Amino acid sequence: MTLARALVISTGRNSAWVALDGEPTPRLAQLRRVAGARSMPVPGDWAMVRMLEDDSVVLESLEPRRTVLARASARGRSKTLAANVDTLVTVTSLGDPPPRTVTLDQLLAFAERASVAAIVVLTKPDRAAAGVPEQLAQTYGALGYSVIVCNPRAGENVAPLRAALVGRQALLCGVSGVGKSTIFAALGGRGATGDVSRHGLGRQTTMAAHLYRSESGFLIDSPGVSDFGLGDLSPAELARGFREFAAPALGCRFTDCTHLREPDCAVAAAVARGAIAGSRYASYRKLQRSSA
Ligand SMILES: Nc1nc2c(ncn2[C@@H]2O[C@H](COP(=O)(O)OP(=O)(O)OP(=O)(O)O)[C@@H](O)[C@H]2O)c(=O)[nH]1
Ligand SMILES: [Mg+2]
Ligand SMILES: [Zn+2]
After folding, report:
1. Residues 179 and 101 in one domain
2. Residues 241, 108: contact at Cβ < 8 Å?
Protein backbone atom coordinates (compact mmCIF):
# COMPACT_ATOMS: atom_id res chain seq x y z
CA MET A 1 0.00 0.00 0.00
CA THR A 2 1.56 3.22 -1.14
CA LEU A 3 0.44 6.81 -1.20
CA ALA A 4 0.75 8.97 -4.28
CA ARG A 5 -0.23 12.43 -5.39
CA ALA A 6 -2.81 12.65 -8.15
CA LEU A 7 -4.74 15.20 -10.15
CA VAL A 8 -8.50 14.76 -10.22
CA ILE A 9 -9.83 14.91 -13.80
CA SER A 10 -13.45 13.90 -13.58
CA THR A 11 -15.74 12.82 -10.79
CA GLY A 12 -18.77 10.63 -10.39
CA ARG A 13 -20.78 9.85 -7.32
CA ASN A 14 -18.41 7.35 -5.74
CA SER A 15 -15.38 7.45 -7.95
CA ALA A 16 -13.10 9.78 -9.82
CA TRP A 17 -10.70 9.61 -12.73
CA VAL A 18 -7.31 10.62 -11.45
CA ALA A 19 -3.92 11.07 -13.07
CA LEU A 20 -0.96 9.93 -11.03
CA ASP A 21 2.30 11.77 -11.44
CA GLY A 22 4.34 10.07 -14.12
CA GLU A 23 1.45 7.96 -15.39
CA PRO A 24 -0.02 8.89 -18.78
CA THR A 25 -3.32 7.01 -18.53
CA PRO A 26 -5.96 8.10 -16.02
CA ARG A 27 -7.04 5.63 -13.35
CA LEU A 28 -10.35 5.22 -11.66
CA ALA A 29 -10.17 5.88 -7.93
CA GLN A 30 -12.81 4.99 -5.37
CA LEU A 31 -14.03 7.76 -3.11
CA ARG A 32 -15.25 5.68 -0.20
CA ARG A 33 -12.73 7.04 2.26
CA VAL A 34 -13.77 10.62 1.64
CA ALA A 35 -17.41 9.96 2.29
CA GLY A 36 -18.51 12.40 4.92
CA ALA A 37 -15.58 14.68 4.25
CA ARG A 38 -16.39 18.35 3.97
CA SER A 39 -15.97 18.61 0.26
CA MET A 40 -16.24 16.22 -2.63
CA PRO A 41 -13.42 16.22 -5.17
CA VAL A 42 -13.85 18.28 -8.33
CA PRO A 43 -11.73 18.41 -11.49
CA GLY A 44 -8.47 20.24 -10.85
CA ASP A 45 -8.21 19.07 -7.25
CA TRP A 46 -4.93 17.60 -6.08
CA ALA A 47 -5.45 14.50 -4.00
CA MET A 48 -3.54 11.87 -2.11
CA VAL A 49 -4.50 8.41 -3.28
CA ARG A 50 -3.73 5.04 -1.77
CA MET A 51 -2.82 2.21 -4.10
CA LEU A 52 -4.06 -1.12 -2.77
CA GLU A 53 -2.53 -4.54 -3.34
CA ASP A 54 -5.20 -5.51 -5.86
CA ASP A 55 -4.15 -2.48 -7.92
CA SER A 56 -7.25 -0.50 -7.01
CA VAL A 57 -6.94 3.12 -6.02
CA VAL A 58 -8.66 4.92 -3.18
CA LEU A 59 -8.84 8.67 -2.92
CA GLU A 60 -7.86 9.57 0.62
CA SER A 61 -7.60 13.32 0.97
CA LEU A 62 -7.68 16.57 -0.92
CA GLU A 63 -5.15 19.35 -0.86
CA PRO A 64 -6.45 22.83 -0.09
CA ARG A 65 -7.79 24.55 -3.21
CA ARG A 66 -6.07 27.69 -4.42
CA THR A 67 -9.12 28.80 -6.40
CA VAL A 68 -12.56 27.44 -7.14
CA LEU A 69 -14.80 27.85 -10.15
CA ALA A 70 -18.40 27.88 -9.02
CA ARG A 71 -21.72 28.20 -10.71
CA ALA A 72 -24.35 30.26 -9.03
CA SER A 73 -27.56 28.34 -8.66
CA ALA A 74 -31.01 29.24 -7.47
CA ARG A 75 -31.55 30.69 -3.99
CA GLY A 76 -28.05 32.07 -3.72
CA ARG A 77 -26.39 28.66 -3.46
CA SER A 78 -23.38 27.80 -5.51
CA LYS A 79 -21.98 24.59 -6.91
CA THR A 80 -18.23 24.08 -7.15
CA LEU A 81 -17.38 22.98 -10.68
CA ALA A 82 -13.60 22.87 -10.64
CA ALA A 83 -10.58 23.81 -8.55
CA ASN A 84 -7.23 25.44 -9.24
CA VAL A 85 -8.25 26.49 -12.75
CA ASP A 86 -6.95 29.74 -14.22
CA THR A 87 -8.05 29.40 -17.83
CA LEU A 88 -11.20 28.40 -19.69
CA VAL A 89 -10.56 27.03 -23.18
CA THR A 90 -13.80 27.58 -25.08
CA VAL A 91 -14.34 25.54 -28.22
CA THR A 92 -16.73 26.68 -30.94
CA SER A 93 -17.24 24.90 -34.25
CA LEU A 94 -17.30 27.06 -37.36
CA GLY A 95 -19.56 24.57 -39.13
CA ASP A 96 -21.44 21.39 -38.22
CA PRO A 97 -22.63 22.40 -35.69
CA PRO A 98 -22.79 26.01 -36.89
CA PRO A 99 -21.30 28.63 -34.57
CA ARG A 100 -23.63 29.93 -31.89
CA THR A 101 -22.13 33.10 -30.55
CA VAL A 102 -24.59 33.28 -27.67
CA THR A 103 -23.10 30.07 -26.28
CA LEU A 104 -19.57 31.40 -26.69
CA ASP A 105 -20.53 34.73 -25.14
CA GLN A 106 -22.09 32.94 -22.18
CA LEU A 107 -18.86 31.01 -21.59
CA LEU A 108 -16.81 34.21 -21.90
CA ALA A 109 -19.13 36.03 -19.50
CA PHE A 110 -18.72 33.17 -17.05
CA ALA A 111 -14.92 33.38 -17.31
CA GLU A 112 -15.02 37.15 -16.95
CA ARG A 113 -17.09 36.99 -13.79
CA ALA A 114 -14.93 34.18 -12.37
CA SER A 115 -11.79 36.23 -13.13
CA VAL A 116 -10.18 33.47 -15.14
CA ALA A 117 -8.60 33.90 -18.55
CA ALA A 118 -10.44 32.64 -21.61
CA ILE A 119 -9.10 31.33 -24.90
CA VAL A 120 -11.35 31.19 -27.96
CA VAL A 121 -10.70 28.08 -30.07
CA LEU A 122 -12.57 27.93 -33.37
CA THR A 123 -12.65 24.46 -34.98
CA LYS A 124 -13.76 23.08 -38.35
CA PRO A 125 -12.51 25.95 -40.53
CA ASP A 126 -12.94 23.53 -43.44
CA ARG A 127 -16.71 23.62 -42.85
CA ALA A 128 -17.00 27.36 -42.30
CA ALA A 129 -19.04 29.80 -44.37
CA ALA A 130 -16.84 32.23 -46.27
CA GLY A 131 -15.57 35.11 -44.16
CA VAL A 132 -16.94 33.78 -40.86
CA PRO A 133 -13.61 32.64 -39.33
CA GLU A 134 -12.04 36.01 -40.06
CA GLN A 135 -15.05 37.88 -38.73
CA LEU A 136 -15.19 35.95 -35.44
CA ALA A 137 -11.42 36.16 -35.02
CA GLN A 138 -11.68 39.91 -35.51
CA THR A 139 -14.59 40.34 -33.07
CA TYR A 140 -13.02 38.35 -30.24
CA GLY A 141 -9.44 39.38 -30.93
CA ALA A 142 -10.50 43.03 -30.65
CA LEU A 143 -11.87 42.25 -27.17
CA GLY A 144 -8.45 41.01 -26.11
CA TYR A 145 -9.14 37.28 -26.22
CA SER A 146 -6.60 34.91 -27.77
CA VAL A 147 -8.29 33.38 -30.78
CA ILE A 148 -6.98 30.15 -32.32
CA VAL A 149 -8.52 28.80 -35.51
CA CYS A 150 -7.52 25.17 -35.87
CA ASN A 151 -8.55 21.91 -37.48
CA PRO A 152 -7.70 19.29 -34.87
CA ARG A 153 -8.84 16.43 -37.12
CA ALA A 154 -6.26 17.33 -39.77
CA GLY A 155 -3.79 18.45 -37.09
CA GLU A 156 -3.71 21.95 -38.55
CA ASN A 157 -2.68 24.89 -36.40
CA VAL A 158 -2.66 22.93 -33.13
CA ALA A 159 0.78 24.34 -32.21
CA PRO A 160 -0.58 27.78 -31.16
CA LEU A 161 -2.98 26.07 -28.76
CA ARG A 162 -0.18 23.95 -27.34
CA ALA A 163 1.86 27.13 -26.84
CA ALA A 164 -1.07 28.96 -25.22
CA LEU A 165 -1.45 26.14 -22.68
CA VAL A 166 2.07 26.28 -21.29
CA GLY A 167 1.87 26.87 -17.56
CA ARG A 168 -1.94 27.04 -17.62
CA GLN A 169 -4.35 25.14 -15.43
CA ALA A 170 -7.10 24.95 -17.96
CA LEU A 171 -10.57 23.55 -18.38
CA LEU A 172 -12.04 22.75 -21.78
CA CYS A 173 -15.62 23.68 -22.53
CA GLY A 174 -17.95 23.73 -25.50
CA VAL A 175 -21.09 21.95 -26.66
CA SER A 176 -21.18 18.43 -28.04
CA GLY A 177 -19.58 17.79 -31.41
CA VAL A 178 -17.37 20.87 -31.61
CA GLY A 179 -14.18 18.78 -31.53
CA LYS A 180 -13.08 18.69 -27.89
CA SER A 181 -12.01 15.04 -27.93
CA THR A 182 -10.31 15.59 -31.28
CA ILE A 183 -8.33 18.46 -29.76
CA PHE A 184 -7.09 16.15 -27.00
CA ALA A 185 -6.04 13.56 -29.52
CA ALA A 186 -4.22 16.21 -31.57
CA LEU A 187 -2.42 17.50 -28.48
CA GLY A 188 -1.39 14.00 -27.48
CA GLY A 189 -3.56 13.92 -24.37
CA ARG A 190 -4.96 10.80 -22.77
CA GLY A 191 -8.55 9.86 -22.31
CA ALA A 192 -10.42 7.33 -20.29
CA THR A 193 -13.97 6.12 -20.35
CA GLY A 194 -15.59 3.60 -18.12
CA ASP A 195 -18.76 2.45 -16.49
CA VAL A 196 -18.99 3.35 -12.89
CA SER A 197 -21.51 1.69 -10.67
CA ARG A 198 -23.07 3.83 -8.07
CA HIS A 199 -22.47 2.37 -4.67
CA GLY A 200 -25.36 0.41 -3.27
CA LEU A 201 -27.65 1.04 -6.21
CA GLY A 202 -25.70 -0.88 -8.81
CA ARG A 203 -26.72 1.62 -11.46
CA GLN A 204 -24.16 2.22 -14.18
CA THR A 205 -23.15 5.58 -15.48
CA THR A 206 -20.55 6.19 -18.12
CA MET A 207 -17.93 8.66 -17.10
CA ALA A 208 -15.31 10.01 -19.44
CA ALA A 209 -12.31 12.18 -18.83
CA HIS A 210 -9.49 13.63 -20.85
CA LEU A 211 -6.23 15.07 -19.65
CA TYR A 212 -3.43 16.81 -21.47
CA ARG A 213 -0.43 17.81 -19.41
CA SER A 214 1.35 20.87 -20.64
CA GLU A 215 4.62 22.14 -19.31
CA SER A 216 3.74 22.85 -15.65
CA GLY A 217 0.05 22.90 -16.46
CA PHE A 218 -2.92 20.85 -17.55
CA LEU A 219 -5.99 20.86 -19.75
CA ILE A 220 -8.97 18.89 -18.49
CA ASP A 221 -12.12 17.78 -20.28
CA SER A 222 -14.73 16.58 -17.87
CA PRO A 223 -18.25 16.10 -19.22
CA GLY A 224 -20.89 17.78 -17.15
CA VAL A 225 -18.52 20.33 -15.72
CA SER A 226 -18.75 22.54 -18.76
CA ASP A 227 -22.32 23.29 -17.80
CA PHE A 228 -21.51 26.91 -17.13
CA GLY A 229 -24.97 28.26 -16.57
CA LEU A 230 -24.74 31.82 -15.39
CA GLY A 231 -27.37 31.31 -12.74
CA ASP A 232 -29.56 34.11 -11.48
CA LEU A 233 -27.74 37.27 -12.39
CA SER A 234 -29.04 40.80 -12.25
CA PRO A 235 -28.64 42.81 -15.47
CA ALA A 236 -25.77 44.72 -13.85
CA GLU A 237 -23.99 41.48 -12.96
CA LEU A 238 -24.47 40.03 -16.43
CA ALA A 239 -23.24 43.26 -18.03
CA ARG A 240 -19.98 42.82 -16.12
CA GLY A 241 -19.44 39.63 -18.10
CA PHE A 242 -19.19 41.70 -21.29
CA ARG A 243 -15.86 43.46 -20.92
CA GLU A 244 -16.41 45.96 -23.74
CA PHE A 245 -19.53 47.36 -22.05
CA ALA A 246 -17.58 48.77 -19.09
CA ALA A 247 -16.15 51.93 -20.66
CA PRO A 248 -19.26 53.02 -22.62
CA ALA A 249 -21.51 52.25 -19.61
CA LEU A 250 -19.90 55.16 -17.76
CA GLY A 251 -21.71 57.43 -20.22
CA CYS A 252 -25.23 56.04 -19.66
CA ARG A 253 -27.70 58.56 -18.22
CA PHE A 254 -28.63 56.22 -15.34
CA THR A 255 -25.88 54.71 -13.25
CA ASP A 256 -27.97 51.53 -12.88
CA CYS A 257 -28.73 51.37 -16.60
CA THR A 258 -29.48 47.80 -17.74
CA HIS A 259 -28.66 48.76 -21.37
CA LEU A 260 -31.94 47.21 -22.47
CA ARG A 261 -34.48 50.01 -22.90
CA GLU A 262 -33.36 53.09 -21.00
CA PRO A 263 -33.07 56.46 -22.75
CA ASP A 264 -29.57 57.84 -23.36
CA CYS A 265 -27.93 54.43 -22.99
CA ALA A 266 -24.33 54.80 -24.11
CA VAL A 267 -23.95 51.03 -24.56
CA ALA A 268 -26.85 50.94 -27.03
CA ALA A 269 -25.32 53.98 -28.75
CA ALA A 270 -21.97 52.17 -29.03
CA VAL A 271 -23.79 49.23 -30.63
CA ALA A 272 -25.56 51.57 -33.06
CA ARG A 273 -22.32 53.12 -34.25
CA GLY A 274 -20.58 49.74 -34.52
CA ALA A 275 -18.16 50.18 -31.60
CA ILE A 276 -19.72 47.16 -29.89
CA ALA A 277 -20.45 44.11 -32.07
CA GLY A 278 -24.18 43.64 -32.66
CA SER A 279 -23.82 39.90 -32.04
CA ARG A 280 -22.40 40.55 -28.57
CA TYR A 281 -25.25 42.88 -27.66
CA ALA A 282 -27.75 40.34 -29.03
CA SER A 283 -26.17 37.68 -26.77
CA TYR A 284 -26.45 40.01 -23.80
CA ARG A 285 -30.14 40.56 -24.46
CA LYS A 286 -30.77 36.84 -24.91
CA LEU A 287 -28.88 35.86 -21.77
CA GLN A 288 -30.70 38.60 -19.90
CA ARG A 289 -34.01 37.02 -20.76
CA SER A 290 -32.87 33.50 -19.88
CA SER A 291 -31.43 34.47 -16.51
CA ALA A 292 -34.41 36.59 -15.50
N1 LIG B 1 -14.23 18.71 -40.70
C2 LIG B 1 -13.75 18.79 -39.47
N3 LIG B 1 -14.16 17.89 -38.57
C4 LIG B 1 -13.70 17.98 -37.31
C5 LIG B 1 -12.78 18.98 -36.92
N6 LIG B 1 -12.53 18.82 -35.60
C7 LIG B 1 -13.25 17.75 -35.20
N8 LIG B 1 -13.96 17.22 -36.23
C9 LIG B 1 -14.90 16.08 -36.21
O10 LIG B 1 -16.06 16.47 -35.47
C11 LIG B 1 -16.65 15.32 -34.86
C12 LIG B 1 -16.91 15.62 -33.39
O13 LIG B 1 -15.67 15.81 -32.72
P14 LIG B 1 -15.44 15.39 -31.20
O15 LIG B 1 -14.01 15.67 -30.89
O16 LIG B 1 -15.95 14.04 -30.92
O17 LIG B 1 -16.40 16.45 -30.47
P18 LIG B 1 -16.59 16.67 -28.89
O19 LIG B 1 -16.59 18.13 -28.67
O20 LIG B 1 -15.61 15.88 -28.12
O21 LIG B 1 -18.06 16.14 -28.67
P22 LIG B 1 -18.68 15.51 -27.30
O23 LIG B 1 -17.73 14.50 -26.76
O24 LIG B 1 -19.99 14.95 -27.75
O25 LIG B 1 -18.88 16.69 -26.36
C26 LIG B 1 -15.67 14.18 -35.09
O27 LIG B 1 -16.18 13.41 -36.16
C28 LIG B 1 -14.37 14.87 -35.49
O29 LIG B 1 -13.57 14.09 -36.34
C30 LIG B 1 -12.36 19.94 -37.92
O31 LIG B 1 -11.60 20.89 -37.67
N32 LIG B 1 -12.88 19.78 -39.16
MG1 LIG C 1 -15.82 14.34 -26.70
ZN1 LIG D 1 -26.88 51.76 -20.67
Report:
1. yes
2. yes
